[in-house]
Amino acid sequence: MDSSCKEENGNPVNSSWVHGPIIVGAGPSGLAVAACLKQNGVPSLILERSQCIASLWQERTYDRLKLHLPKQFCELPFLSFPENFPKYPTKHQFISYMESYARHFSVEPIFKKAVETAEFDHVMQFWRVRTHDSEYCSRWLIVATGENADSVIPAIQGIEKFRGPVIHTSVYKSGSEFKNQRVLVVGCGNSGMEVSLDLCRNNAIPYMVVRNSVHILPREMFGISTFSITMELLKWLPLRLVDKFLLLVANFTLGNTERLGLRRPKTGPIELKNATGKTPVLDVGALSQIKSGKIKVMEGVREITETGAKFMDGQEKEFDSIILATGYKSNVPIWLKGTGFFTKDGMPKTPFPNGWKGGNGLYTVGFTRRGLLGTSSDAINIAGDIAEQWRIL
Ligand SMILES: Cc1cc2nc3c(=O)[nH]c(=O)nc-3n(C[C@H](O)[C@H](O)[C@H](O)COP(=O)(O)OP(=O)(O)OC[C@H]3O[C@@H](n4cnc5c(N)ncnc54)[C@H](O)[C@@H]3O)c2cc1C
């Protein structure tokens, strides 16, 4: 990095030229692309807003979390999980894998550097990336801030009146903090289901709000992960036929979920995932707690009161706490300026597998809605593409 000091609007700005790409974000995607670049002989610089790598996993996930997909689908390029890891590694095992991955490839992000703006300078033909105290310049910018950068907090009528705690799942750690409490869990995706299950196991009383339709699939079918089966079938059969098969097996093994208040969408699970990014819930035990009545399914909330909630079906209940399992969103529109490459929701406009490359040396990794498998594919593509340019410099 070459440094100089510039004045702008009377304020001094530390400005550095970065040899190689600037990567924004030190999650699995940022680490994977830095490692792939290194394998191709290209240096890079990672700027990370938090104080650790994989901060989503270290700071914003609950204790009991395990990978949703089998480990072979969650490995990053050039380094496998240790053999003694189970099929579904725990969050702590995944973090230790990430730490050894960074060590193995000597990837050393700069921490506490939240990128506030990044913009292509058309006159100078390079990217200007700004943090609160510095400017970094490079020919290449790699966006690795993730599909889950910020929590989604919905506007629910009356929520500001509620006297108890209201938290998002990103700060939920364990159900032990909610023992004997009546807890309203808003949302029924993977997080809503798993948090409700964790609450149950810690003797809390969860009420899960299911406003929309949802596909629930068993995590495994015939002892094989549903994800593996789906990937294999998609090689041979049309998508709609695969969806029919998944729903047939799901109905056979889980029973009719509609009777439990969990309506299935009209579109099949994989078709829906491809069209909207909405992931089917992979059941890890919540459904049996719903069947036994330990997790109570509620229709949409009409209004939150000082002590509880009024529901669409006219019921009214008291609660001690509210947990918002309402998901995450990309933060790219907040800091990346003037590219036209992203939608207003911060996802690349070009769909997978071609969303990794924009114009003027802009790249994205980890925005495929395909988890870590998509990350690996993007990282390899980006490193190959930049390495070609690097060689002829
Ligand atoms: C509960 C949960 C379970 C999951 N389980 C799986 C699974 O089993 N398998 C799977 O494949 N995927 C899973 N995922 C998806 C998950 O998003 C990916 O596994 C993975 O974390 C994505 O990596 P990423 O690097 O793209 O994004 P992230 O892990 O979100 O990392 C992005 C990084 O960018 C940083 N950042 C954001 N904005 C800025 C900024 N302006 N400046 C500087 N730094 C910034 C963040 O602090 C963060 O460290 C799960 C997600 C969640 C929430």
From TrEMBL:
GO terms for molecular function: flavin adenine dinucleotide binding; indole-3-pyruvate monooxygenase activity; N,N-dimethylaniline monooxygenase activity; NADP binding. Its cofactor is FAD. Its EC number is 1.-.-.-. GO terms for biological process: auxin biosynthetic process. It catalyses: indole-3-pyruvate + NADPH + O2 + H(+) = (indol-3-yl)acetate + CO2 + NADP(+) + H2O. It is an enzyme of class 1 (oxidoreductase). Coiled coil: none annotated. Belongs to the FMO family. This is Flavin-containing monooxygenase.
